[in-house]
Every structure is written in C-alpha cells, then in structure tokens.
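Input/output pair, single chain:
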Amino acid sequence: MIDLKGIRNIVLDLGGVILELDVNRSIKALSELGLTGLEDLDIIFSKYPFFLEFETGRINAGQFMDALTARLGDHAPREKILEAWNAMILGFRPDTINLLTQLKAKYRMFLLSNTNAIHEVYYNNLLHMEHGIPNLTDIFEKVYYSHDLNMRKPDHEIFQHILADSRLTARETLYIDDTEVHVKAAGDLGIHGYHLRLPQRITEVLCL
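Output:
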C-alpha cells in the first residue's frame, strides 16, 4: 500500500494503470492485415515513425490513417484498420472508477498519458457507455496527453510542464505508472513515484 502522507496531488498514467490494455490484440490484428515485423510498441515506433509522430501530435488522425492505409494497401478497409488500432483498449474496471471518484474528493487529480487522438475518442466513448461518465476530464482536474503537448514520457519536459502548468509542488505529488523508466523520470524531478508492476492493480496499492 502506498503511503499518502504529505501527498496533495496524484498524477496517474492511463493505460495499464486505470485503463485495461492488451497491446498484443492490436499487434495481432495489424499483423493479420499485413503490417509485418511487429513485436511490441517500441519496435512499431522505430520501424514505422508515423506512429510516434501521431502520438506526439505531429500528424493528425487523418494523416495517420493515410500512412497506415498506404502501408497496408487497398485490401485493408479503413474501418478494419481503425478496429485493429483500437483493439488494445479493453475498458475501465468499475472498482477503478469508484476509487478515482473517492480520491478526487481528497486530492488534486491529474492524468498523464502517451496517447493519440483516435484512442482518446475511443476510450472516452467506452467510459461514457460503460460508466455514464462523458469524459476523463469529468474525473480529473486536468488531463495531459502527449499528442496535445507535442512531447511524451519519459522526457523530463513533460513532467516539468505539468508541475508548472498546474502549480504543483514536486514533493507533494505522487506519480503512478506501469513503465519503470517513466517513474524514474518523474523521480528525477523530485516527484514521488510508484512503479505499478502488472498484474498488480491500482486498487491494490491505493486505498483511502
């Protein structure tokens, strides 16, 4: 259990922390459509730079879909490509949503995610359909997305931006992420970090 003594602000990662993900579902679906040599997201980003460009907002959703369609050819319908890209997103657990609602009453809550415009629409639609909450902005004081900021974790500048933009004191701030290098980057700036090691769940380490 995380000790929240002295903590006033909580910053959470999205995928793997509050949003259930299975990246292999998208890798498998894209491979079946003809995108070759996929093993994990790091390989995808290095082999196909337009994925990283999309995640950092340097190209928009239409340009991303055009680039992906060009790689796959005319045999892959755009709706199937979109379905494959969104396949990794599984949804939000009810106990996670309940925890976030409780935490919101006691702490300033923020979300920080390496994500993209297509996934943002998809997971917010799931949140609305499954839990009646229109948008993650209804849970968090502010959301910080890589594609809006043109920067991504683990770069220090994205954490510096959050601290400055929301006027947070690092020593009063807790950051939780399922990627260790992201937690380390936050720690470099004096933010208290916690590495959530899957299959560990946030509801097991945070409790009021």
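The mean pLDDT is 96. The longest helix spans residues 117-131.
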